[in-house]
Amino acid sequence: VSCPTSVILTNSCSINILYFLFRERTTTMTGSSATFAAVLMATLGASQGVVRISEVASQGIFDVCGGKATVPGDQYVELHNSGVSEQSLEGYVLYDDKGPTGTEAYTFTGEVIAAKSFKVVCRGTEFQFGIGDTDTIGLQDAVGTQISTSGVLPGFGDLTHTYQHNSGAGKFLYAAPTPGAQNKFQADEVVINEVASESVNNVCKGKDFVELANIGSNVADISNWLIHDDRGHGKNGTEEYIFAADTKMAPQSFMLLCNNKETFRFGIAGRDTITLVDANKQVVSTPGPLQGSGQSTNTSTYQRRSDGTYAYSFPSPEFANTFSSEIEKPVVINELSTTGTYKTCGGSQDAGGNQYIELLNTGDEEVDLTGYRMFDDKGPLSSTVHTFDNVTMAAGEYLFICGSGKKGNFQFGIGGRDTITLTEPNDDIVSTTGVLQNQFTTDLSYQRRNDGTYTFAIPSPGNENVIISDYADDIFINEISDTGTYNVCGGDDKTPGADFIEFGNKAKTAIDVGGFIIIDDDTDFSHKNAGVIPSGTIIKPESFLIFCADKDFNFGIAGRDQVSILDNHGTLLSSSKLEGQGTPDMSFSRTGDGEFVYATPTPGGKNMPDEKSGKPGSSAASTRSVRSALSALFVAISISKFLF
Questions:
Q1: Would you tell me the crossing angle of helices 11-24 and 33-48 to the nearest 10 degrees?
Q2: Which 8-state DSSP code applies to residue 70?
Q3: With contact defined as beta carbons under 8 Å apart, do 372 and 422 qualify?
Q4: What pLDDT, in 10s, does the model give residues 38-80?
Q5: Three-state DSSP class for 6?
Q6: Those residues with Cβ within 8 angstroms of residue 69's Cβ, 6 or more apart along the chain or in another chain
Q7: 58/217 Cα distance (integer angstroms)
Q8: Would the N or C end of the chain have less CB density within 10 A of its end CB?
Q9: What is the pTM of this model?
Q10: Burial of 571 (0-12, 13-18, 19+ CB in 10 A)
């Protein structure tokens, strides 16, 4: 039983919880009233979930926790209750990286935190553990669930900087201390825009480079900021680079830093992490670990996308980054193979043919490719560049090009860490694959997803790509309600709430479904009514998560609608077609074998269809996992090699 945060302490909600406790006999009511009260408060606290770690001081500051104006106090952890009701901390546990069962973990007794307020917890007078530079601070509620964590501290804390939760960014950052008050942060406008760990022709004399970009509308003062690699600040001698006083960046400008004596001296390789830190020792920007394994080449660097994520793409130092998924050109590199496949480009039913590249015109008009050029990682000046002559592509047409010495075929070889790029006569990029992953076999080719990224899939030369989602084994539609049901999505005991769609996670690890898309028959991932799940939305291991109409998606569910999930690459992940029998007491629920039946709603829990509550739908409604269907397709394609 859980109650909406806004009514967690109302009489009706408390009565529901009491009723549940009696009905399910989950507690012994013959014990003391104090024992029962503790159980009740634990239930209330677990349902509320509004207390979190807000600030961590690993060095202590002035005027707090025993400190004076000229003498710093002890270390502290600040908690924040963002809810509208007072919250009991009875039984809550605050701990460091030794965990909630560590000998110095601190258990709260008889303490409360007022609504919309902060509570500073001091070392010495309250908790006893020390907060190290790279410690992790956690908070566990009264029923043993971790409800908040700082993550690993980066080690920049000092008298004027504490590690604080930034609710807007959804992460912790360093900022000026604000004990007992709302955290305050400066806007991030300067970012690491591009990182090269391999030489790029005619850039920085072939040395590694890091490019910064000021994406804001104001001049950015980066005086005394610093940049370092994964060895961190102050731990790599003179190799980190500190920007000189009065260093400024104009709005919408770039700054290229080359690996030499004048700027940074650290080398960039493998899974290095490059970090930009401001004068207040706050981490401003980092792309996270590079992808290593040779993905960076002289035709591919690690670059920032417009949404703040990073990916490899064609180098663009001192220019705006360009990604295949963001290029609005109709012709794309749709598929390629380094090993060839069966019955293609000279292959037989028993052996793969020559390498091939497939283009696709995704537009509505014919495209003249005369003068277009296609090349590998040797670049556009190589003698093996393939130039198109008197070639046109109709709307929706696939163009298949084989690799061999014959006239009309491309002459360069594809392999290893190649990047295949297509440009217009004026050298504008039309499409690029990024660095290949070198996982090719005759049964796998490199194919373009709907969002412009690439992955390996069953070869489909001359046909639409058939790609299995990376999440096909784990994430699925578990339950659909086209009428809403009680006590969920705005409903109460008497009135059904909004329509809902419930995801399930079969994995034993949590999965971030940020960027996943919910659609019905009348929408697709590009339409405004589709539900795009916010970044950082987590489904816990082997559990469920509900998405409500009008809040998480804008289409209504009715009749024989088909509801589908697309993953963060736009690849179909799970789909189910309703039979039009839904009521507030009957939702469309997935059974253990992937079929769907109408059954008693179980939002947030495991489905329990039975003979009285539902029967399997017709063949149109019987939905199995997408992976099962695609696996069958794989078998069919494999068999066809020997039959035709």
A1: 120
A2: S
A3: yes
A4: 444 444 444 344 899 999 999 888 889 998 877 889 999 999 9
A5: helix
A6: 62, 63
A7: 35
A8: C
A9: 0.45
A10: buried
